[in-house]
Amino acid sequence: DAGVTQSPTHLIKTRGQQVTLRCSPKSGHDTVSWYQQALGQGPQFIFQYYEEEERQRGNFPDRFSGHQFPNYSSELNVNALLLGDSALYLCASSLVGAATGELFFGEGSRLTVL
Amino acid sequence: AQSVAQPEDQVNVAEGNPLTVKCTYSVSGNPYLFWYVQYPNRGLQFLLKYITGDNLVKGSYGFEAEFNKSQTSFHLKKPSALVSDSALYFCAVRDVRGGATNKLIFGTGTLLAVQP
Fold first, then answer.
1. Smallest Cα–Cα separation from A64: which of A85, A50, A49, A43?
2. Interface of A with B in 1-20 (CB under 8 A)
3. Is the dihedral of CA B82, B88, B91, B95 positive or negative?
4. Which residues have CB under 8 Å from A97's CB, separation 6+?
5. Out of A50, A101, A105, whose CB is closest to B44?
6. Would you call B107 and A42 a contact, using CB atoms and an 8 Å cutoff?
7. For residue range B7-48, what is the model confidence (pLDDT) as tens digits?
8. Mean pLDDT, to the nearest integer, of B74-86?
9. CA atoms within 13 A on the CB side of B3
10. Do B43 and A105 touch (CB under 8 A)?
11. Residues of A in contact with B39 (CB under 8 A)
12. If you write DSSP's letter for every residue of B49-78 in order, what string do you get?
């Protein structure tokens, strides 16, 4: 049973560039959430996708956008990168019908912006 | 507003001794509480959750947590610490606001260091 997989694991970008991060949810899961974890902080909710639509967005600017595909996989796009976007980006999957279920996290994509 | 607080940035304990990692919460309505662990350069791994029922919740790797409604706390415990338990621990509460399901609000984390 494959867990949540994310790619790439590490990447380095410069200010102003754009980045795309990818996530495949755990088998059987239909909902994907993205979190940003800055150094020394807890994960912060970016947004959640279900049925290819954004269900809720956290306190992040429009530079952060996402997409969910029919196979439930998801992408996180960040435009006009800032130094402060350097963080570990975590993808988490869950089942919408499991209202009290836990999130399953991937290993994360570590983004460094120079 | 839904929130959790982890008052200790770091907890140090000797191997074989009991450990406690503290968490307090603030929610409107019934709390759904979680503990996750993060090893260096890794994602988060689920340890345990409290939804309802028994105030003592047992989880993975010998960890347990005690839910205390009057003190609004959900402390993580283990009777005998192992060096391999050294990691970053996050308490989280489910946020029921908005359209997302299973959206979690995390604390700032507590680094557990177990000395041999």
1. A85
2. 4
3. negative
4. none
5. A105
6. yes
7. 999 999 999 999 999 999 998 888 899 999 999 878 899 999
8. 97
9. 5
10. yes
11. none
12. EE-SS-SEEE-GGG-EEEEETTTTEEEEEE
